[in-house]
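Feature request, filed as a ticket because there's no other form

It would be nice if the structure record came with a short human-readable summary line next to the tokens. Right now we just get the raw output. Example of a typical job, pasted below so the devs can see what we mean:
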Amino acid sequence: MKKKIIIFTLNGCSFCSIIKKRLENESIPFTEYEINDYPDLWEQVVSQTNSEYLPTFFIREGDNESGQVFCPKRDFNDEDSIIEILKNI
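Raw output as currently delivered:
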């Protein structure tokens, strides 16, 4: 089953920029959702995870809406740890 990485970001978020650059350098494909462009979706993510930290990752499995969510300070603390998680999904 093909998995798709979705990253929720905020313009001006330095950690978001660092992570996106690392994903590009590691050739890990992703789709970016800037939270100001998707406020209802972001609100749903925050409600489900109890976390407003960015960047937050949703790993969508196949064509359905199910998947895993990875949040900073809950599932990873630095760029190396999230890159390793994403490499191994």
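Something like this underneath would help us a lot:
The longest strand covers residues 3-9.
The chain has one domain: 3-87.
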